[in-house]
Amino acid sequence: MKKTLFLAAILIVHTLFIIYTQKSLYPIHFIPQSIFVLDMIGKPTFLPSLLLPLFGMGNLILLWFIGKCFFKNNYSFLPSLIYAVSPWGAYLAATGSYYIYLLFLILLIFYSLLSLKSENKRIATVLLVISVLVTVYSSILLMLLVPAILILMIVLKLIPLNNLRFSFISLIILMLPLFFLSFNYAASFKNTLDNEVKWFADPGLLNSINRYQGEAREDGFYYLGRSADNKYLLFSEYGLLKYANQLIPSVYFTQQGKLLNFSFSPPITLGFLIPFIYGLYQVLQSSLLRKTFLVSTLLVIPSVLAKQAVDLNRLIIFAPVIILITSYGLMLMLKNKSDKRLYLFLIVSLSLIIFQQLFTVFDIQFKEKMRFEKYFEQNYELEK
Amino acid sequence: MMKKAWIIILLLITITLLGGFLRFYKLTDNPPSLNGDEISFGYAAYSILKTGHDEHGKFMPLILESVGDYKNPVPAYMMVITIKLFGLTDFSVRLPNALIGTLTIPLFFLFLKDIVKNKTTSLLGALFLSTSSWHIFYSRFAYEYIPATAFILLGIWSFMKMWDGKRILAVISAFFFILTMYTAPAPRLFIVVFVLAVLAYKLPKLNKTMDKVMLFILTCLILALPLIYLSLYGNANARMGMVFIANDIEFQRYINLQGFQLVTDIPQLLFFWLKRYLSYLQPNFIFFNALNMTAPGTIGLGLLYLFELPWLILGVREFIKQKIPYKGIFAIWLLTGIIPDSITNNQQHSGRLLQIAPLVIMVTTLGAVQFFKSILSISKTYLKAAGLGIFAVCVVIVLIHAFLTFAVYFPRARGEYIDEGLREVVSYVLDHQNNYKEVIFDTRRGIEGPYIITNSYLYLLFYSKYDPYTYQTEPKIFGPDKNNPVYSFNKYSFKYIDWSKDAGKKETLFIGSPWSFPAEGLQEGELLKKIYMRNGYPAFYIVSPK
């Protein structure tokens, strides 16, 4: 009862945060994105933006349950609490981001994978099949990514194949219509994919390669120029750079990536950085957690494929990983309060979290709308 | 044993010579021109050598007023020696840095040997420093952070040893720390924060070493007295005020929006600074573009080569795992070393970060050793060979890119930002000035438009070897118009060219960018010469109205 009340309290806090953000930013919202399958068969529908705050709350509830599976102690509320007070989820839900819905599906997949080991294995399998199916029918990138992640998890022996055999067979059968659609509407499929994959869209890169090779040729280094600065190498380096860019802490804990491309609110409050680093350090000590973390980094790929260096809208599907690591670190710090250094870090973290949280609320009220007006981008529109 | 020592010495000499070659080869051709700071240091040194006063008439100055940015004096005093030996040339200006940059290599070897107690690792570290694009790039300019880095290394090394060593180390450490503060602006803040942080860290053990600490502080205070005086009553902190983070364009335009209010906007500034501080971990900065050698948006060179990425990651792990002495001080060095650059209003500047270069290279070296150990421990020979082979190919490709960036892309991409073309302009002016009553330089330049302000008068003074005493004493005119500031001496004027008004001035030589003159309004014979940059774009037109 106590825990349910606590969950309700967290839900209220998050809802209030969304409403507050929505009111402060009104009438800004994302240009709605259609489910790609419906796009392909020529019946585009939009997810009503009002639904998305509900998915936001669903994410929070799922994080609550995932926290329970993961930590199995009194600190299992931490992931949902961090999500509730972080501007990231609130901003995207308030402005109607499609990726809040995709995050819901990712969390559902993750929860069902965790539940496969529980007594309710059958329910977990059905849940897994449904959630994967809805995901692959909803997003073209996740259509490729989610199966890849599942296969990698089996290859790395993070999940036994036996647990997924039935799910795989069901999924293959249920995904057949999607394959047929892809063949029948190949042009639409390609268009949708092109719309999602924009990292090659920057002509500057190709220009720079041509320029480099031209300059090298002028100075008599034609072959050296071609061997070190050709488009394959430069695109590989650029891809590596973009991938690495998604994995640096400042993207998640500072305003570096700019929420909605204009905001000064950090995705997650900076005070959580210390628990995150401590949590990450602990995660990397364990072989199983290390492998799981490495596989989970594939979730940054949609952001890698975006036009910007970091697309916080797409990157939110990786947020649970960051939140879980942070919660893990915070839990260990809270558990080991007797260690003076950890205690000191804990105090610093908590003070910073409270201070920045208050500052962010104040800042959203007085500055965010003005920033949007100054930095208007075509990804967003004002309600007519 | 003796034989092994000789091999180590021989290898160290080879590595140092390699480092020297990379720093000295075509030193005056690449970078293609002395930049504004180099020319300013150079002429100030020449002026001090000839008259004992800088170009503003200050006797043996401890702060150089220069162009109003109040530069640190040590680089200029170092150039006094080389200018005395080799005359006022580009080589004399760049020689001290290239030399100190080269000598830092064996110094770093000795430092590493003392810390990691392993000669092979130390040699590897020396090799990394000798081939570091970060260190090579700045060693080829007369850039004050190269000597500052060497002094900081010596200062921190003796400061570390001071705690368990002799008292004299406190004096040596204090000397190098304060010398660093006279050498470059960023260390003034870094040294203070670093020392305070280490003292706080060592607080529990402070009682046992109080005598050394007191001696250290006393020496610091005595040596820094002139600097403290200049900071309080002079303009030693002028530069700090100019570049403070609150004046950052991104902060002012997109975050603060309404003008910085000291009290209410402090939290905003604090979080902006924290964002800036953490952004030094960006891979883009570390591996691709920190040196700013190529055009924006292209892949250039970073603090480290791309193949050093796994070494850096492994190095951090090794640094945490291994028993390394003074680990706490190293951590403080890293954390405080970023502060000076992070509180400035410019984009991240790899030069101001050079003070942590030895530490970054040390960590990379630890990672490289572990990396090779892991590869060599692979039992299957073909896998081992394949691993090493693939990595070697990556290294070669990255090094070819680095070579091309230095030799080909950089001189073309950044020429106008380091005032390429002004040397040739002055040469033309000196050859022809007797035919004209006045010579007018446009103080703005840029290929596309007037987005760069140059101090062309310093290039004139430098390349004409203008008599410093004459320059200090002769009358100068400063135009009062803020929209078109005019500076004149002798027959030379430096201002914005306005052809609608200037076209009628006969017997006058005009030097300006192509856009300083009307595209098709020049009569035949008025355009006397075009000066081109290495990228083929015209840098300057030399024009005289008929």
Describe this structure in words.
The complex is a heterodimer of chains A (384) and B (546). By secondary structure, chain A is an all-alpha fold. Chain A is built from 20 helices and two strands. In chain A, strands 1-2 form a two-stranded antiparallel sheet. Chain B is α+β, with helices and mostly antiparallel strands. Helix content of chain B is 58%, strand content 7%. Chain B is built from 23 helices and nine strands. Chain B has helices at 2-24, 36-51, 74-86, 90-116, 119-130, 133-139, 145-162, 168-183, 186-201, 210-233, 238-242, 249-256, 266-278, 283-289, 309-321, 327-337, 339-342, 357-376, 381-414, 422-432, 456-463, 468-473, 499-502, and strands spanning 438-442, 444-445, 452-453, 476-478, 487-489, 492-495, 508-512, 527-532, 538-543. In chain B, strands 4-5-6-1-7-9-8 form a seven-stranded mixed beta sheet, with helices on one face. In chain B, strands 2-3 form a two-stranded antiparallel sheet. In chain B, helix 1 packs antiparallel against helix 4, helix 1 (2-24) runs parallel beside helix 5 (119-130) and helix 20 packs across helix 21. Chain B is globular. The model of chain B has no long low-confidence stretch (mean pLDDT 92). Classes of the chains: A mainly alpha (384), B alpha+beta (546). Chains A and B meet through helix 11, helix 12, helix 13, helix 14 and helix 20 of A and helix 12, helix 13, helix 14 and helix 19 of B.
